[in-house]
Amino acid sequence: MKAKFLVPLFLFLVLVGFLAFGLGLNPREVPSPLIDKPAPAFSLARLDQPEQRFSIDEMRGQVWLLNVWASWCVACRQEHPVLVDLARRNLVPIVGLNYKEVRGDGAIDARGMALEVETAQAISRARGWLKAHGDPYQLSVLDIDGRVGIDFGVYGVPETFLIDRDGRIRYKHIGPVTPDNLQKVLLPKIEELKRAG
Amino acid sequence: MELSHKLRCLVCQNQSIAESNAPLAVDLRDQVREQLEAGKSKDDVLEYLVERYGDFVLYEPPFKTTTLLLWGGPAALLVGGAGWLAFRLRRRQAEAAQQARLTDAERDRARALLAGAAPVAADAPSAEEPRS
What we know:
The complex is a heterodimer of chains A (197) and B (132). By secondary structure, chain A is α/β, with parallel strands linked by helices. Chain A has 5 helices and 7 strands, in the order αβββαβαβαββα. The longest helix of chain B is centred in the middle third of the chain and has 33 residues, at 68-100.
């Protein structure tokens, strides 16, 4: 058999290779364009002291995690023990971004709700949830309308951002943090950034 | 708003934010509306979203060096394939033409046959087959 007759077969196998690779990719994971860029500045009310605001500048000089969560988010319940455990190990501070606590809940229609009312409800729900499930956060802030979430390119909950000492986003984890990806991906990156000082 | 039709809903990824009922789509529609009302241009709004969500938020992939293969690939394959086909056909034609060319002896023989004379083959016994 002449070798040239194998060319179409070879080309076909190359295409099959591409298909196999593509099928292995997850379309739900949209890569973030914010990697290596400065984390968007924000100033939001703190969950523990709502009259006070928190801005990310306060974290300058530290490597830290920003975890997007809400009490209505089922997957957050799944990852929460992992975060509580991580917090106990004292390796990296975790700041919680409480995302659309009231209006994000499918069971609540917050349209027409006054902002103060919605905020008060968000505070009580969030605090209640953390009391019940543990609080791994150095502090949590209230993103009532989700605008800060949009600035971070949040399109689902939970999401976790790894931010370095200069305030740059270095890694975005989509979906719940599992012990496996904590061990294999997140912790090594945290170590690396901490060493970089 | 036509701008909303050009943006993908990242939750229901096969719908635009104009069509989707996902909460994020509602939020993004509000953002788009607010910004346009505040006087931002369409390009400003698109840039705002691409900055945060990446190129995937645009329904139509932009024309950049990274997407050159995506845009140009099919056309390049078509031109390449057609070119290859043309090349092969021409070569086959040339080969066929070459094979069809007669040697001098064959041409003389052909002439003789056409003129009606008996075929005189160098190696065949003389068999007379007069043609009318």
